[in-house]
Design a protein that fits this description.
This protein has helices at 22-35, 59-69, 85-95, 102-113, 117-131, 160-196, 211-222, 269-274, 280-283, 299-312, 352-363, 379-388, 409-414, 422-425; strands at residues 7-16, 38-48, 76-79, 99-101, 200-205, 243-248, 254-259, 287-293, 320-325, 336-338, 341-343, 367-374, 390-397, 400-408, 420-421. It is an alpha/beta fold and 426 residues long. Bound molecules: guanosine-5'-triphosphate and magnesium ion.
């Protein structure tokens, strides 16, 4: 592993009166900073009735902050919120330090972790959109990637700033065009799936709750040795792209399981917007599995954030199963089911059958059990059911193949003219 020297940082937060989760969000800011190779050396907090529009913190606190920043010469100052362009400008000029905010930390982590082309483009769009209004105040050390070189003398009279802005706007436009064609391609794939009527199930939840681990244990349970596992790791935002896997249960019922990017409180809105196309899967899901790290004392807050984010994406009101994961780290009994909730451990693979039971109830409730007789000249119907239904018994009779099966009502109706329903005759 590459050894990078960690740059010192001072974190700053303002606690508003109604903010009950302030301490937690400051802890989270430390983790976000650590993920960006910044080491928090000091912290400044303030209780206030409202945010100061010019400097974010009260003017009395500026001097205190400047003094704190003296602890380390090259310390950057990180604010636990998204700062406005003018706040950044004002703060940088009063403090003579690089000032960054929670948003840029998250954007940087996303940029570093993005693996697929699409995720990379999405993060870049979000970063550029964030930078655009902040260009003038930004210090050279930050964000001005690819600026400058080779563009001298274009559009005489244009300032460097205007040039930068125009280049960024052009770049955003080009990226968005490229993204649109990717989205269109995926939409076609999704439509195709819809035609096949395979239920789509999405794993959603706070970052690090165990979505990818749960996906992997489902794959291992129903497709052992397939090597289709996804990346799971103990870090913020291990997953930045949706991956879809087809899961086929032993009785032939199959569904698509989608792993998605985790949510975090104050997820930058540019990022939510940029990732909207990736997360479109979620809005069209037949079922959500909301994965919760029940061992985290803050899991209720995580659930709220997840639900708010889903709402912002337009994915509210979708049938949901709550998967209280990491129960092995608690004193709770597991596996345990209560209504539409299950306590389980993805790590130990405990509770997977029970979860599957809940999934069955939620998405395979349109199945019928029938006994049918398919004439021999309709052999293709038999092979269709062998492929798509749970065949419980077969016998060959004079008039045709007799199948005892459990199949989707839609399939039953689709081939209704091609067989005799023996169940009705008995
Ligand atoms: N003890 C315990 N650890 C778990 C369990 N499930 C997942 N983990 C661990 O939690 C960490 C995060 O797991 P992931 O599956 O990557 O979580 P995620 O929700 O996909 O995270 P993001 O992709 O970052 O949003 C990993 O270190 C897992 O090994 C569990 O049931 N018990
Ligand atoms: Mg993941």
């Amino acid at each position: 592993m590459e050894q990078t020297l960690r740059q010192p940082a001072v974190i700053v937060g303002v606690q508003l009166q109604n903010d009950l989760h302030f301490d937690y969000s400051m802890d989270e800011l430390r983790n976000l900073a650590a993920a960006c190779n910044l080491e928090v050396v000091a912290e400044l907090t303030q209780k206030a009735a409202k945010i100061n529009s010019a400097h974010y913190i009260g003017s009395g606190k500026i001097a205190e902050l400047a003094q704190l920043a003296e602890t380390a010469e090259d310390a950057v100052i990180i604010f636990n919120d998204e700062l406005t362009p003018s706040q950044i400008r004002n703060l940088e000029s009063s403090l003579d330090r690089t000032v960054i905010d929670r948003t840029i930390l998250i954007l940087n982590i996303f940029a570093e972790r993005a693996q697929t082309k699409e995720a990379q483009l999405q993060v870049e769009v979000a970063r550029l959109q964030y930078m655009l209004p902040r260009l003038s105040g930004m210090r050279e050390s930050l964000g001005r990637q690819g600026g400058g070189a080779g563009l001298k003398n274009r559009g005489t009279g244009e300032t460097k700033l205007e040039l930068d802005r125009r280049r960024i706007e052009e770049r955003i436009y080009a990226l968005q065009t490229e993204l649109q064609s990717m989205v269109a391609r995926r939409q076609i794939q999704r439509k195709q799936r819809h035609k096949n009527e395979v239920p789509v199930i999405c794993l959603v939840g706070y970052t690090n709750s165990g979505k990818s681990s749960l996906m992997n244990v489902m794959i291992e349970t129903y497709h052992p040795g397939s090597g289709k596992q996804v990346f799971a790791k103990d870090m913020l935002f291990a997953t930045l792209e949706t991956s879809v896997r087809s899961i086929r249960l032993p009785d032939q019922k199959s569904f698509l399981l989608t792993d998605t990017v985790g949510f975090v409180s104050q997820l930058p809105h540019h990022l939510v917007k940029a990732f909207r196309s990736t997360l479109e899967e979620v809005t069209e899901a037949d079922l959500l599995i909301h994965v919760v790290d029940v061992s985290d004392p803050q899991h209720k807050q995580h659930m709220e954030v997840t639900e708010e984010t889903l709402k912002a994406l337009g994915a509210e009101g979708i049938k949901t199963i709550y998967a209280y994961n990491k129960a092995d780290l608690t004193d709770l009994a597991y596996p345990d089911i209560q209504k539409d909730a299950i306590w389980l451990s993805a790590k130990q693979g405990k509770g997977i059958e029970e979860l599957t039971g809940l999934i069955r109830k939620a998405v395979f409730n349109d199945y019928v059990q029938r006994e049918i007789l398919v004439p021999y000249d309709r052999g293709s119907v038999v092979s269709y059911f062998n492929e798509h239904a749970n065949v419980l018994g077969v016998s060959y009779e004079e008039e045709g193949t007799r199948l005892k099966l459990e199949c989707r009502l839609a399939d039953y109706e689709r081939f209704r003219d091609d067989f005799v329903d023996v169940t009705l005759e008995d």
